[in-house]
Amino acid sequence: MSQQETIAVAMSGGVDSSTVAAMLCADGHTVIGLTLQLWNQRRLSGHEGMPEAVQGRCCSIDDVYDARRVAEQIGIPYYVVNQEARFERDVVQPFVREYLHGRTPIPCTLCNNHLKFDQLLLTARSIGAERIATGHYARNEYDPVRDRWILKRPADKAKDQTYFLFGLTQEQLSRTLFPLGHMTKPEVRQLAEGYSLALAKKPDSQEICFIPGGDYKLFMEAYLEEQEQPLPDTSGELVTSTGEVVGAHEGVHHFTVGQRKGIQQRLKGHQPNPFYVLQIDPDSHRVTVGTEDELLTHTMRVGDLNWISIASLGEPMRVQAKIRHRHEPAWATLQRVSDDEVEVIFDEPQRAVTPGQAAVFYQDDEVVGGGWIR
C-alpha cells in the first residue's frame, strides 16, 4: 500500500473505526472520514410505547457527533452522507416484509451489501479515494494462484464479523481495508488510548440500529402506521408436526424458528413438555410447534449465493457452515442444486435452522461464500 494513498474511512462513531482513522493518519496516509446517515432515530417516537430518543446505539446522532469529534481531533476532512431513503428501501422495508412472511431477516448484512460497502465506495471514488477502510474484524488478501480476493476470519475470533460480510463482491474486497483484522479488541482499545481518543472506552453497540430497545414487533407496528398501512392479519393456528391444532396466535410476525417464549400461554390445555416454534407457513398462517428434539435437522437449502474463495460450486465440497452469528460452525457437505442454490447436509443435526437467516461457509479461516436460508 502506497504511503501516498488517499483512503476514505467509514466512521461509525465507535472506537473501532475511530482507531482505524487514527492509525492510517499515523502511517502517513491521506484520510477522509465518511459517515452514512441512515435513519432518523426520532422518526417514530410519537407511536405509543416507542422511546422519545435513542442514545448510544449504532448510527445514532450521538455517533455522528462522536465521529465528527474524532475527525476534528486527528485533523482530517469529514463528511456525512445522507442515505436515509436508500436505507429505508433496501433494509427497513425488506426487514418488515420478511417478518410478515414468516422469515427472520438480518438487516446488518443487507446494510453491508447495499450501503456500507457499495455506497461508500462510490462516494469515496467521487472524492478522490480509491479505497475505503472500516473497523470490521475481518481480514482480506489477494491470492494470485486463484486470482481471487479472499475474506478471512480475524485474529480475535470473539469479534469475528465475517458472517455479516459474506455478500461482498470481488471488486468490493479489492478496494477495502480491514486494519483491525490482526488485532484483538483489548489491543484496539489500548491503541485508541495511545492516540488519546476520547471514546477509547465507549461501549460496543449490540442492537439493530433502527429498532429502539430491540422490540421489532413494536417497530413494525409503528412503521406501518406511519406509512398508513394496516398491519396485515396473519393470525392463525398453532399445530403440531402431525397437524393437531393445539392453540392459536395473533400473527406470524410474533415468531421465529426456535422460539420458546410466548408459546405455552397460547396452547389449549396443559402440555407436559415445553414447545418451540418449528416452522412458519406464511400462506396458511399456521405455526408448527413441537419439542426441542424436533428442532434438529440434517439438511437445509441455501439460495441467493455469493462465492468468495471459489468462482462457483461444481463438485460437492466439505465446509463448516454457520447458520447464525453466534452459531459455532458445523461440519457439512455442500451439494449443488442449481447456479443459485445449494443443499447443505450436516454431519450432525443442527438446532433451529431459520429461513431468512444467512448461512456462511468456511474452510479453516477462509470464507468460501454464503447465501440465505430458504
TrEMBL record:
Known catalytic reactions: S-sulfanyl-L-cysteinyl-[protein] + uridine(34) in tRNA + AH2 + ATP = 2-thiouridine(34) in tRNA + L-cysteinyl-[protein] + A + AMP + diphosphate + H(+)
Gene Ontology MF annotations: ATP binding; tRNA binding; tRNA-uridine 2-sulfurtransferase activity
Keyword Transferase: yes
InterPro entries per the UniProt record, alphabetical: MnmA-like, MnmA-like_C, MnmA-like_central, MnmA-like_central_sf, Rossmann-like_a/b/a_fold
Localization in the cell: Cytoplasm
Domain tRNA-specific 2-thiouridylase MnmA-like central span(s) in chain numbering: 230-290
NCBIfam families to which the protein is assigned, alphabetical: PRK00143.1 (NF001138), trmU (TIGR00420)
Record keywords: ATP-binding, Cytoplasm, Disulfide bond, Nucleotide-binding, RNA-binding, Transferase, tRNA processing, tRNA-binding
Interaction with tRNA (site feature) positions: H136, Q357
Residues the entry annotates as binding ATP: A10, M11, S12, G13, G14, V15, D16, S17, L36, G135
Enzyme class: transferase
Stretch list, region Interaction with tRNA: 159-161
Family: Belongs to the MnmA/TRMU family.
Annotated function: Catalyzes the 2-thiolation of uridine at the wobble position (U34) of tRNA, leading to the formation of s(2)U34.
Gene Ontology CC entries for this record: cytoplasm
Gene: mnmA
HAMAP family named among the record's database cross-references: tRNA_thiouridyl_MnmA
BP GO terms, sorted: tRNA wobble position uridine thiolation
Protein name, per record: tRNA-specific 2-thiouridylase MnmA
Domain tRNA-specific 2-thiouridylase MnmA-like C-terminal: 298-373
UniProt-listed Enzyme Commission number(s): 2.8.1.13
Active site: C111, C209
